[in-house]
Prior knowledge:
- The complex is a heterodimer.
- Chain A is mostly beta strands.
- Chain A is built from no helices and eleven strands.
- In chain A, strands 2, 4, 5, 6, 9, 10 and 11 form a seven-stranded mixed beta sheet that branches. A four-stranded antiparallel beta sheet of chain A has the order 1-3-8-7, with no helix packed on it.
- In chain A, strand 5 and strand 6 (53-57) form a beta hairpin.
- Chain A is globular.
- Chain B is mainly beta.
- Chain B contains no helices and nine strands.
- Chain B has strands at 9-13, 18-23, 32-38, 45-50, 55-56, 61-64, 70-75, 84-91, 101-106.
- In chain B, the strands form two sheets. A five-stranded mixed beta sheet of chain B has the order 1-9-8-3-4, with no helix packed on it. A four-stranded antiparallel beta sheet of chain B has the order 2-7-6-5, with no helix packed on it.
- The model of chain B has no long low-confidence stretch (mean pLDDT 92).
- The A-B interface holds A 2, 4, 31, 33, 35, 42-45, 48, 56, 58, 88, 90, 92, 94, 97-108, 110 and B 30-32, 34, 38, 41-46, 49, 51, 87, 91-99.
Amino acid sequence: DSGVTQTPKHLITATGQRVTLRCSPRSGDLSVYWYQQSLDQGLQFLIQYYNGEERAKGNILERFSAQQFPDLHSELNLSSLELGDSALYFCASSLAGDPYNEQFFGPGTRLTVL
Amino acid sequence: DAKTTQPPSMDCAEGRAANLPCNHSTISGNEYVYWYRQIHSQGPQYIIHGLKNNETNEMASLIITEDRKSSTLILPHATLRDTAVYYCIANDYKLSFGAGTTVTVRA
């Protein structure tokens, strides 16, 4: 158990819909990272927040957005969903945004878009 | 981001050392070498990381060549629970996972 929690575990929805994935980092961790793992693309970095501020962006689509709240939990919002958005979405946390800190990954949310 | 090259798969006997190679010839001076592993569809698990020097922790050892163009992850006594996909990443905190090496530990 990494100490990172993600809800829900599974999510099934239809194309065109909007969903919100939630992540609670480990106690004391200030950075939250979001990753997407699909069968054809592998595990890709989406976005990072540090203490409420966006720190880095990766391959995140414009239809996706995220935020980190004052209590440090984070939400990833996915809108206008397409079949290709079906994937495992992982959240990770680390103590700070510096490169040398290890990231602790949550169990993931499996999103299925029908 | 430095591109990494790893063998797609390797087998290892239980109780023996597993040596996982990684090539990262385009690594830049401020990029670390990280190793993570992923068991089935669980969240990736951190193993070890280093910049220039060899590193060892309770899970593994990391050997980085002097020119930093390649590295080797050593699992000293592989167990069946070490069967996983192992990812070598040469990057900053925006981890960029490649295809990794699927390691199968056999009894």
